[in-house]
Write a structure and sequence with these properties.
By secondary structure, the chain is of the alpha+beta class. The chain has four domains: about 1-60, Ubiquitin-like (UB roll), CATH 3.10.20; about 65-240, Threonyl-tRNA Synthetase, Chain A, domain 2 (2-Layer Sandwich), CATH 3.30.980.10; about 265-295 and about 330-535, Bira Bifunctional Protein, Domain 2 (BirA Bifunctional Protein, domain 2, 2-Layer Sandwich); about 550-640, Anticodon-binding domain (Rossmann fold, 3-Layer(aba) Sandwich), CATH 3.40.50. Helices cover about 35% and strands about 25% of the residues. The structure holds zinc ion (2 copies).
Length: about 650
């Protein structure tokens, strides 16, 4: 007999029992919901045989790893269906992803929507057949030989890549076998509800010099109702997708001859960015930030000091030949830090100068792969509310709090705060080459940051290997409409770059010391923030951010003068106003202003002219506020703008 701890209770089982059999021993139907096992804190397969003293957690679809296992098994079912229908298809890889799974196939022609339907039907059969998945292992040479015999070149390459002496595991389900390490469900019957959502091209191993494969995406749930709800959410998300809506509303565009990831801001988008930038710069000034304006490029010399040349060269646009020592070589800046440090180094500093807060509206350049580009979220050139705060060790906690409070203030004002979570991004001690500094420096910096975060009661999760190459960071994460998480704002603590750049201050005791630096942004990249705002508000921006705030709609020609008079009065209050003086029916004008999501429409006709009034309509359904004196509308509108109302 062996003893196994389950939910703090020790239970006895027969030798050789596996996690799935433990689940079954509970009786009832619970075992049908179990997807994977966590044994002594390590995620794994239900087939794992338990040992005396193990602690076992049984994971369902509700757990991240359980969900991963469920959807990954769905990818095997899809691959089996594809092989049944297209025996010549070559298999690449098929992992679970954020909200579903995919499998990459090498096929002659890309799958059409009709093909996907056929594959789905075949998958249904496989689920109905309820085929058991079994695991077996082979030595490397046999694994390679097996795939060579089956004419599966990608699997051969994968098997050859596994270290010598390591066992190679396989999972078989009926007529289908796949090379696979990951956990799987016990049989195909559990994958009740699934849908293949799209087929796109994807390079083998993400490498554009390799062959383009066909990637089929799908998603899977235990219940049809959950799948239904998910697909409805996706439909809604598609309508809000900034990459679609932002173009429809003429906020931004892109063109091939300029390039991917280099958006062109149209007047409406530019207006919103200008409002945001003024808001950020004014707020920072109120909080004691000074502004700098530093160059967009520098010689390689600067990046050699900062470490970018050694740790970040692939991510930079280099102007010139880095290997030609006889000529100066420049690079566009991927970060502002080394530039702003030069402002600090402009003269000798004492503790009396600190804290010193330098803010900059900073345009940066990062050489991302073409395939990574997405609307305003993944771009090669972007502008960030950048800043570096230089302080003494005693000031660090207060200044960190100040930086965080500023970021939270920004997010709340924009209405984005409810969508964020925190990640404490640390270095990966097993991958030291990626970072500058010593393990002791990293431990010290992370220790200190952890203490500050705990002290401020920030509820964070830890991201190992997510740190910048020069220091740990607090990432404020935000989910987009599809539920995908991205970093919006980061606040970092760094001592290593200050040391590299010889930044010092003379302390009270007359000693020269290296200051601490907080790298931070208050609103993140303006482009990314704009993308989130488009999606959050589906283009119906809060009044203070709307590119056009009020549209005046005269009913007939004879009301034009009055309309223009109102426009002047509103503009005198700083509002952004348009008059629709086209020769169109009023119903048509209203519909169009609504489509443009203008916050207020003012309809003016005979009775409004006579009474000095306006008939007010808010965008959206039931927005008719009726007629009111112009002065009343002005009060209402000014108040909504000044208090930055979110609705
Ligand atoms: Zn697998
Ligand atoms: Zn920085």
């Amino acid at each position: 007999m062996i003893k196994v701890t389950l939910r703090d209770t020790v239970k006895e089982f027969n030798d050789g029992i596996n996690a799935f059999e433990v689940a079954k021993s509970f009786g009832g139907g619970f075992y049908k919901n179990v997807c994977a096992a966590r044994i002594n804190g390590v995620n794994g397969d239900l087939r794992t045989v338990l040992k005396d003293g193990d602690t076992l957690e049984l994971l369902t679809f509700e757990d991240e790893y359980g969900r991963w296992t469920f959807r990954h098994t769905a990818s095997h079912i899809m691959a089996q269906a594809v092989k049944r229908l297209y025996p010549n298809a070559k298999l690449a890889i098929g992992p679970a992803v954020d909200d579903g799974f995919y499998y990459d196939f090498d096929i002659d022609e890309k799958f059409t929507p009709d093909d996907l339907k056929k594959i789905e039907d075949e998958m249904k059969k496989i689920v109905k057949e309820d085929i058991e998945l079994t695991r077996f292992a082979l030595p490397k040479a046999e694994a390679v030989a097996k795939f060579e015999a089956e004419n599966e070149p990608y699997k051969v390459e994968l098997a050859e890549g596994i270290a010598d002496g390591e066992e190679i595991s396989f999972y078989a389900q009926g007529d289908f076998t796949d090379l696979c390490a990951g956990a799987h469900l016990m049989s195909t019957g559990a994958v009740k509800a699934f849908k293949l959502t799209s087929a796109t091209g994807a390079y083998w191993r993400g490498d554009s010099s390799k062959k383009m494969l066909c990637r089929v995406y799908g998603t899977a749930f235990p219940k049809a109702s959950e799948l239904e709800a998910h697909l409805t959410m996706l439909e809604e998300a598609k309508k809000r997708d900034h990459n679609k809506l932002g173009r429809e509303l003429e906020i931004f565009t892109t063109v091939d001859c300029i390039g991917q990831g280099l958006p062109i801001m149209l007047p409406k988008g530019t207006k919103i960015l200008q409002i945001l930038q003024r808001f950020v710069e004014d707020e920072e000034e109120r909080r004691g930030w000074l502004r700098t304006k530093t160059p967009l490029m520098a010689k390689s010399d600067l990046y050699k000091i900062s470490g970018h040349w050694d740790h970040y060269l692939d991510g930079m646009f280099v102007l010139g030949d880095p290997n030609d020592e006889s000529k100066e070589c420049f690079a566009l800046r991927p970060m502002t830090c080394p530039f702003q440090y030069q402002a600090y180094l402009n003269r000798a500093r004492s503790y009396r100068d600190l804290p010193l807060r330098y803010g900059e509206t900073s345009t940066l350049f990062r050489n991302e792969e073409s395939g990574e580009m997405h609307g305003l979220i993944r771009v090669r050139q972007f502008t960030i509310s950048e800043g570096h705060l230089i302080c003494t060790p005693e000031q660090l906690e207060d200044e960190f709090r100040g930086s965080l409070e500023l970021a939270i203030f920004m997010l709340k004002t924009l209405g984005l705060y409810e969508d964020v979570s925190y990640r404490f991004s640390q270095w990966d001690p097993n991958d030291k080459d990626k970072y500058i500094g010593t393990p002791e420096q990293w431990e010290e910096a992370q220790d200190m940051m952890g203490k500050i975060l705990d002290h401020l009661e920030i509820p964070y999760k830890v991201g190992v290997g997510e740190a910048a190459f020069y220091g740990p960071k607090l990432d404020i994460q935000i989910k987009n409409v599809y539920g995908k998480e991205d970093t919006l704002i980061t606040i970092q603590i760094d001592q290593m770059l200050a040391e590299k750049f010889g930044m010092e201050y003379v302390d009270r005791d007359g000693q020269k010391k290296n200051p601490y630096i907080i790298h931070r942004t208050s609103i993140g990249c303006y482009e990314r923030t704009l993308a989130l705002l488009i999606e959050k508000y589906a283009g119906a921006f809060p009044m203070w951010l709307a590119p056009t705030q009020v549209k005046i709609l005269p009913i007939a020609d004879r009301h034009f003068d009055y309309a223009y008079d109102i426009k002047k009065q509103l503009e005198a209050k700083g509002m952004r106003v348009e008059v629709d003086d086209r020769n169109e029916k009023i119903g048509y004008k209203i519909r169009e202003a609504r489509l443009q999501k203008v916050p207020y429409m003012l309809v003016v006709g005979d009775s409004e002219v006579e009474n000095g009034a306006v008939a007010v309509r808010q965008r959206g359904e039931n927005g008719d506020l009726g007629a009111m004196p112009l002065a009343q509308f002005i009060d209402l509108a000014v108040n909504e703008i000044e208090t930055k109302v979110i609705k």
